[in-house]
User: Fold this.
Amino acid sequence: MTRLAFYGDPPPNVEGADLPGRLIVLEGTDGVGRSTHIALLKEWLEAHGHAVIDTGLRRSDLAGRGIERAKRGNTLDSLTLNLFYATDFLDRLEHQIIPALRAGMVALVDRYIFSLIVRAAVRGVPRDWIQDVYGFALIPDKVIYLDIDIAQLQPRVVASHGFDYWESGQDYLRTPGLFDGWVTYQTALLAEFRRLADQHGFTVVNARGTLAEVFHDLQHEVRQVVEGMSRQSVLPPEPNDA
Amino acid sequence: MPPAERDTKLNGARLMVQDNFQRGESGFPGRLIVVEGIDGSGKSTQIDLLQKWLQSRGYLTIFTEWNSSPIVRATTRRGKRRHLLTPLSFSLIHSADFASRVHAQVLPALQAGAIVLADRYVYTAFARDAARGVSRPWLRRLYSFAADPTLAFYFDVPLEEAIQRIVQSRAAIKYYEAGMDMNLHEDLFESFRIFQGQILNEYEHLVEEFHLIRIDATEPLVDQQQRVREIVEPHLQGVARIPDRDMHDFLRQVGLQGRYIREAQPAP
Assistant:
């Protein structure tokens, strides 16, 4: 059961009984491996007969494209961007996440409100304001924070897509090079993430290990949440099942 | 400067983190004048007349309108056209639009000493979104980054008269305008009537809470404008005027017609 409980005032018209599904959130900074693990967890849960939806930032029908378009320009201030992301999140909460939970599905969310709060906070937006804006967010069954340090993150970013404008905080930092900006920005993000992890009691998973190690820990955490849910045996159990 | 000359304060200025927003409580040299009211109250006509008057007296003015940010508007339009908006996403996307205009239009103009004229301001969100069931305290906190207006006029019109004006002047009432998303009534027109009535009721509370200046919008147009100007006048003290604003005078002086000057120049 996902309790129908919110951080602040619930969205209007959202009421009723608790939801039979489960809401599981993966949080962590850019390059920590969230999307890889979401993909793996989804396949694993489905193989065990769970119906799964996954969602992440900018994937709303309403505002996803608008944000992409806005980010291409150079006139976007951080307050507008934050409220744009809040719109995108709310649209997915109302139209993807809550309906899926109502239908008894497992919702795997790649970044919930916490990444958005962290990104706002490092840009100087007051924490109490941005947390308050997101008061309409449903409290997840579990928030897993993939914990990492700059030193381990660095080679992963180089090996994948490299240093990107937004992930290096270039919209608000004025650093001569991308790398300096990336270090400053990611260091600030990690500090904010850890602060939130303490405040909200996230489940912290060490993301410094190998893919197999991290995934094993994630399976352990997720298994506890989905335990006892009704399942459909759509697929035979896999031989190398953990 | 004495407070009278800097009475446009940043409310919740702590939100405005960019360096140029750090003026905080000290206020801005400009003025912010707001008109509010339900559809059909005549507020847009009044603010247009006010702007022309101010311009003719040499004041630098800028006009900003609800739901008009070039960055956000397309998303709002998409949501409306496809009926994707819920009460809360309706509220949030309009707050994004507002934030974008505050950043790009309102604050820079106030800092530059201009008179900003806003057709609808935060009170529109407070009234409409609350009528849709959004939490009133949350709305006030959401919009805490908005500067307090120097003057906020409320154009008070009875519901039936406003509806009559709308029906006479417009081809169709739109889905969200009529509050059709609220399932108030299956008939568009009836739904519009109910929803506008609820908004009117919210405005009544806002007039008290925020000391909006009530203008009787059933009075003749010129009388309303006269009253608005009388109220605005004392607040113009200390606001910079721009020389050479009157292009016509200038052209007459230099004996030219201004044939290649674009339309964007101040109207005569």
Residues 249 and 255 of chain B are 10 Å apart (CA to CA). The first strand of chain B starts at residue 31 and ends at 36. Chain B touches chain A at residues 12, 14-15, 17-18, 69, 71-72, 74-75, 78-79, 82, 84-89, 92-93, 95-96, 99-100, 102-104, 132-135, 137-138, 141-142, 144-145 (CB under 8 Å). The two ends of chain B are 33 Å apart (CA to CA).
